[in-house]
UniProtKB/TrEMBL annotation:
Residues 86-113 form a coiled coil. InterPro entries: Chaperone_Skp (IPR005632), Skp_dom_sf (IPR024930). Belongs to the Skp family. It comes from Sphingosinicella microcystinivorans. GO terms for cellular component: cytosol. GO terms for biological process: protein stabilization. Pfam families: OmpH (PF03938). GO terms for molecular function: unfolded protein binding. This is Periplasmic chaperone for outer membrane proteins Skp. Keywords: Coiled coil, Signal. The lineage of its organism: Bacteria, Pseudomonadati, Pseudomonadota, Alphaproteobacteria, Sphingomonadales.
């Protein structure tokens, strides 16, 4: 009886181990790419960095200049208020407020231009890196590529970031930071 029980247990264990072995053999190969590193360290992103920095600093400088200008004008208006007629003060305050709104819109437009430039750089890098990742997947026999940021833990052997980076740097050494002009809106009928 003991012998029969041992055989049954061994058979059951062997039977339960078979699906695990089969799953391990059928598991699709995976490659992992550190897209954050690609975005930060690729030749294309490094080539765009000084131009993007200059655009950003230009926006900040313009915002500071306008902010300082309007702060001074508001202070001067406040100082002059006691000697001004109420209507004249209100007209001057309204005019100053309208100019400030126009200036804020100008800065907002420059901020949007900067954001479009950053997005255009990212778009160019993604458009170039996606076929490279697909080619590396094919070469490695992988059926799935994951961004390192979405994994909890990864075996170093799955990481193909260096290979992808090398190919991307050859294919796209630099990018344009000036996005193409948006198509003109169709006239309303």
């Amino acid at each position: 009886m003991k012998m029969l029980t041992r055989v049954a247990i061994a058979g059951a264990l062997a039977f339960t181990a078979l699906p695990t072995v089969a799953l391990a053999q059928a598991a699709p190969p995976i490659v992992v790419v550190d897209m954050g590193r690609i975005a930060a360290e690729s030749a294309a992103s490094k080539s765009a960095e000084p131009q993007l920095k200059a655009k950003f600093e230009s926006v900040q400088a313009r915002a500071k200049t306008l902010g300082d200008q309007f702060r001074g004008e508001y202070e001067n208006l406040q100082k002059a208020q006691p000697s001004m007629a109420k209507e004249a003060f209100q007209a001057k305050a309204k005019e100053l407020q309208q100019r400030q709104v126009t200036a804020e819109n100008e800065v907002r437009g420059k901020e949007q231009d900067y954001a479009r430039s950053v997005q255009y750089v990212r778009q160019q890098i993604l458009e170039a890196v996606n076929p490279i990742i697909t080619a590396v997947m094919r070469e490695k026999g992988a059926s799935l590529a994951l961004d390192r940021d979405v994994t909890l833990a990864t075996a170093q052997s799955l990481d193909v970031t260096n290979e992808v980076m090398t190919r991307l740097n050859s294919a796209l050494p630099r990018v344009n930071v000036n996005p193409p002009a948006a198509p003109a809106a169709a006239p309303k009928k």
